[in-house]
Specification:
two-stranded antiparallel ribbon, about 55% helix, disordered C terminus, two-stranded antiparallel sheet, elongated, single chain, 23 helices
Length: about 525
Amino acid sequence: MNVEELYDIYNTLKDAGDKISEHSKEYEKVIKATRLGPKEKKLSTDIIKTFFSSFPAQQSKALSAIFDLCEDEDKNIRIGAMKALPSFCNDTLSHLVKITEVMGQMLGVDDPTEQTCATNAFYEVLKKDPVSVINNVFLIIQSPDLLPIARYRCIQFILTKVKQLDSSIMTTEVQDLMITNIKVALNNCIADEFVLLISYLVSTNLVKSFVGQQEITQIILQQIEIDKDFKPYQANGKAHFTNRLVTCVKFILPFFSAKNESTQLVKYYCDKVLDQWEAIGALNNGIQYQTGIAQQLAIMAPFCGSLENPTKQVETIFNVLQLYMPQPPENTSSNEMPEFNFSIVESLLCAFHALARQCPEFLTEDPARLKDFRARLLYFSRGIQGCKKVLSLNATDKVFNAEEKRIREMCPQLLTNIQTLVKDLFYTPPVYKCKITLSFTKKEEASAKAAAEQKPVVEAVAAVGNKRHVPITFENSSNGASHQNAKRGGFTGDKKIYTPPSGKFSQNFQRGRGGGWYRGGRGRGGYRGGYRN
């Protein structure tokens, strides 16, 4: 069999009209030609595709031949076979399950061109029967034989491409089916997959109802194992558990309200997470994890319901807060200031202020405690005044980069928030009436919204997860303004910490994806011989 003979068969089948079924032997020869040379393989692929519906009895054999070509040594032949697969669903969907399974495995290929081709072909099949494809994709990702990289890309594909379907195809039935399958998949997924799945879930209509928000909240609480003691790190010292906590909780922060209380999670943070504060700080990028945890607690605290023993939770926050609010020095004439972490203080002070409303006697029942705390507050306020003065003095005499500008824009609100909270605590007795807008919340909301509107699911998740404002510190220095690089990891990104100078106030302040996951040969994710196993 050569190319000329294949062309003769093509012309015969084309001219056969209603009698084409009488030429099954010729079609059989075309199927066998897929085992010949490159030219024969390409031509036979086109002939099989063109006359596929005319030979029902030969369809399984023809499809199997195309699957073999998807594993061919020649990249161009593999791509041609991939492109042909959607056409086999044009007239019948009886082969859709097998085609979906094979395409899911093909998403694990290494070559970018083949990845794109496999994705585009899979999308064409998805549009033909979204209900069946969605169900099949969620079934095949549970297969133990599917390579991890292919599993991840299957999840990534279905979450991304379903959103691109035309509104006439993306019916309520399809949306509900996605939600149902995602809930099941969340019970058996790794960290990266969890982020993909839950990020899609919070973008659906499920979050528009109170019941839906509660359901997602419970899924998150189960994921972080709120009923168990908190472990900051794994046995190998990696911050897996801390990273998981901060990453998971960020998804449900917008759901908390007077109607949907945060009591359960606030109690967990106070009783189990803050208890491991020093261990968290000892991790790589520990200061960023501590900042993230403090910020999340500050967001949740105002929506906390009645606590059984609020004094316990308030005292825990109070004890951690004091670590960042030093006592005034004995030498009151000194103008040297310690390092002040305004970011963490804003968050912890807000959380303390919100929860102390449930036990207003916490400070007043111990006069010595109140006196000491007010002395610390007064000393810290002195640092705030110095910081404000430095920001004002340096406002026009230096060129700042984008990150420094962002921090300087955020500083006034942050410092004002702390002063507002401190003012309440200096009343006799202390009151807990003021309300503030946390300095970092508006920035995060804007970033999350922009990411969700402009980027695919995976990129949007990264934007939401990585956007954390940098801790702002007031560091003892005699050399003017210093800018330090704080390397951030896990749920954070690489940012600069803006550190104003102290001194006299009248002077200048996740398992990588790639080769490690692949197995097998030929540089395409090791999928050879696996499509129909």
